[in-house]
Amino acid sequence: MIGDAAGIVKPLSGGGIYTGVISDKNAAIAIDDALKNEDYSKKSLSEYQNLWKKEIGFKLRTVAIIQKYFLSISVNDKLLNKVYEKINDKYIINKINSLGDIDYPSKVVISIILKNRLY
After folding, report:
1. CA 42 → CA 54, 55, 100, 116, distances in Å?
2. Along the 119 residues of the chain, how does pLDDT read in single tens digits?
3. Are 52 and 26 in contact (CB under 8 A)?
4. Prediction pTM value
5. Distance (Å, rounded) from C-alpha 88 to C-alpha 18?
6. Residues 71, 80: Cα–Cα separation, whole Å
7. Domain assignments of the chain as residue spans, ordered by start
8. 112 in Cβ contact with 97 (< 8 Å)
9. How close are the terminal C-alpha atoms of the chain, in Å?
10. Three-point CA angle 73, 79, 83, nearest 5°
């Protein structure tokens, strides 16, 4: 399985187009290698998983941690209100403008969290 069907989606948005393209590309590489080598073993075909994890696995794990952070503060009204108030902070706005990327939200979120600006 590839893309959304394999659960390879962005944790924050649930989007699967970007991750689908990455997993499709890596599936094609693994299939091509298997056909060229006439090796259809589990080990050979596991190249697919190794490839996509190498390319985007760390990013997906990082964003999953960010998602857990936001879910944890969502049950604390006081903390959540504080976070929403801080979003209008000039530092936050500048970070979003300079680092914000829909495919890599972890860059901006980690930068802001590390500076303790969201709580």
Report:
1. 18, 20, 39, 45
2. 788 788 888 887 888 888 999 999 999 999 999 999 999 999 999 999 999 999 999 989 988 888 888 788 877 888 878 877 777 788 888 878 888 777 777 777 777 777 665 55
3. yes
4. 0.70
5. 29
6. 10
7. 3-114
8. no
9. 40
10. 90
